Amino acid sequence: MRPMDGKTALVTGASSGIGRAIAQRFADDGARVYLTGRRKDELEAAAEDVGPNAVAVPCDVSQAADLDRVMDVIRGDGRRLDAVVANAGLGDGSRLQDVTEEQFDFVFGVNTKGSLLTVQKSLPLLAQPASVILLASSTIHLGAARMGVYAASKAAVRSLGRTWAAELAPRGVRVNVITPGPIATPAIERLAGRLGQSSEDFHKVLASQLPLQRMGRPEEVAALAAFLAGPESSFITGAEHFVDGGQIQV
What we know:
By secondary structure, this protein is of the alpha/beta class. Helices cover 44% and strands 17% of the residues. It is built from eight helices and seven strands, in the order E-H-E-H-E-H-E-H-E-H-E-H-H-H-E. A seven-stranded parallel β-sheet has the order 3-2-1-4-5-6-7, with helices on both faces. Strand 5, helix 5 and strand 6 form a beta-alpha-beta unit. The radius of gyration is 17 Å and the shape is globular. The model has no long low-confidence stretch (mean pLDDT 96).
C-alpha cells in the first residue's frame, strides 16, 4: 500500500517547479491531486504528465472567486482534502527605489493573500486529520538585495503558519512551513533574466553561497512535503523546515 492511497491533495502553483514536483510525488504516493496555476495550457500539460490521478483546475490564488471554483470542483467529486499545499508564489527582483505600488500589491496578492485564501477556502473540505503545508523562502532570513518585497511576503506566510497551527490544532489539522533555499526551477531562470545574468552564472553564484555547493532539486522539496503530509509527521506542527543546502543553519 502506498503512503497516500485513498487521500486527496491540493497543490497550488503546480504548473512547474516545486509545486509540480510535489504534485508528482503525491500522485506517485497514491493521492488524487488537484493542481492549480494561472497558465492553463502549462497547467494541463503538467497534470497530464503527473498522471491519471491529477486534475488541473486553472486558478489565480489572489482571487477568492477562483479558489471558490476550485473547491467546488473538489466538492463536486465527492472529495475531502487530506493535504493542502499553498505553494503558488512569485518574486519581484526590484530594489527599494524601483518598487512600485503595483509590484507590491501583485507580489503580496499572490504570495501572502493567495496563501491565506487557499487555506481559508479549504477549511470546509479539510479532513480530520489533515495537513496544511505553506511555502516560504530562505530569503526571509537574509538581507538579499532586490528581494525585499518577496522576502517580506514570504515572512508573512511563515508568521501565518504559526497562527494557523494554533487555530487549527483543535480540528486535528497540522500546519507546517517549508523554507527552500536556491532550488533549480523555472522561477530561478526567470529571476536570472530579470537580473541580467545567464542561468549558468546565476546558478554558480547561488551554489557558491551554500555549504553543499550545489543548487537544490524540486524533488528534494517534494520529499519533505510528502513526509509532512503523512502520518509519520503526526506530532509536528507550527514548525519551519529548511531545504536549503545549509544556507541558513550553517
